[in-house]
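Re: your question about SCO family protein

S., sorry for the slow reply, the queue was backed up all week. Below is exactly what I fed in.
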Amino acid sequence: MKYNIKSCIPIFFVFIISACNNETKKLPILGQREPIEKIVNGKTVVDTIYQTIPNFSFMNQDSIIINNDSLSKSIYVADFFFTSCPSICPIMSKNMLSIYNKFKGNEEVKFLSHTIDPKHDTIPVLKKYATKLGVSSKQWHFLLGDKDTVYQLAKTGYMSFTAEDNKAPGGITHSGYFLLIDKEKRIRGAYDGTDETQVKQLMEDMDVLLNEYKTKN
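Result:
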């Protein structure tokens, strides 16, 4: 069988363009932003300060302190849950597990699940929950912290809704979003953790974000 070289050239360029697009694609930076003026080479330029995740310090299921410094070299996915949640949390945990399994072993990727029911979700409870899910690596941290601190972090840091509600299943209402955070602690994406299509998009966007750092080096 003979191939027409000229007819293959357009297809070849399509692949080249597609590859370039994947390499140069960047995710947006979400949250509040503030323009500031600064002097660069004697000229006044406008720069942008983006919202970042505030400093925090919580204990994980292995009684290890996790804070901003622990994540300085990693992107991560964060969510808010509680182990006795009878509604969306089991679905979220199942979908987060799929993401965890894809990136398991990648030291540049971490997962943070903040309990919003610290009275019940003690360290042993969180450890049991993690073990039941099959989480054995140091990538996925189930975090315990003071309730007021966690609720405030959810609201102001992650733009996530959490509140006590006697009418809600389990007595707590909260958003089911997964938040993608970059190494600079900026929010790069928000995804419905109960929606498989959005979870798939999150995994694709994580690859994009990792490639963003790869091309910088």
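Helices lie at 5-24, 89-103, 123-133, 147-157, 196-216. Residues 111 and 140 are 4 Å apart (CA to CA).

Happy to talk it through on Thursday.
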